[in-house]
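Before relying on records like the one below, remember that each one covers exactly one chain. Contacts with other chains, cofactors or solvent are not represented anywhere in the record.
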Amino acid sequence: MKRILIFMISVLLIGMIAGCSNEKKADGNKQQDVTIMLDWYPNAVHSALYVAKEKGYFKDEGINLKIEMPADTNDPLKMAAVGKIDLAISYQKQVLLSRSEDIPVVSIGSYVQHPLDALIYNKSKGITRPKDLEGKKVGYASSPTSEPIIKTIVEHDGGDMSKVKMVDVGFDLIPALATGKVDALEGAYINHEYLLLQKEGVNVGKLSLEKNGVPDSSELVFVTGEKTLKTEKDTLLKFMKALTKGQDDVKKDPKSALNVLLEHENKNFKLDKKVETESLNILLPLMGDKTTPFGQQNPNQWKNAADWMYKTKITPKKVNYKDAFVNLNQ
């Protein structure tokens, strides 16, 4: 996540462009164009989107879904805020951070209901618990949440954060740990970097953040702008309905779903079928269960995340978490 000032300027520029664009119109078959921007390049977590589109579930709901990739990982939420796109896949913490700066975005559904982020470390460095990070170097990807996360887990375990060295490695998380530049990573995912490091032969371990003082939260959510929510609520509800059908199919037949996804891989970001298979196996239990169905958002997660972000000074003011999300499927 970039600095708020850059974020605000980007929102204003995109808003100017959006203001000049024409309103969407349904075609002769009453199909309404809906654009969703991914959080990253297509990978296992996006399987339900591509399955639902291929099987015509969106068309059944009168939606002509367009799936776009971001040029920058900060683009999706910014563009949703000003109505340049209808939906974005983004992060729960980013939604709260944005709302603390009066960026008008709302989450309409959870995609991954629990964290994928974990403390990933090189086992040869003698790390078995957060306190062991004292005297170690922790790499992170230029995120304002990383240091508060490490501070939380270290102090929760009785450690001294002043003895931990944080190293901004940008997006080079994997090489930073693999080459020994850092001893551990914050911001690396258990379904991606962890698997790729194992593939490279690095002896890695992982520690859960939510079991060490950081509140449980949804990793990925579907985000729209407040104005879009008001004017297109029925369409957004239909989107969630179609997507849920796609997710049901993914759960029933992950292998076939992954084959659909692989047909849509980005040529610049080739996928490893074995890694994506393992990734999907990790993801599915985190995307909904009998207690919290797919898409459903937990109010306590939002409250606890908002409280923690304010307490750790990630957000400059306390966010009214009730305004940050809505469960359309209720």
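Strands lie at 32-37, 63-68, 87-90, 105-112, 117-122, 137-140, 165-168, 184-189, 204-208, 220-225.
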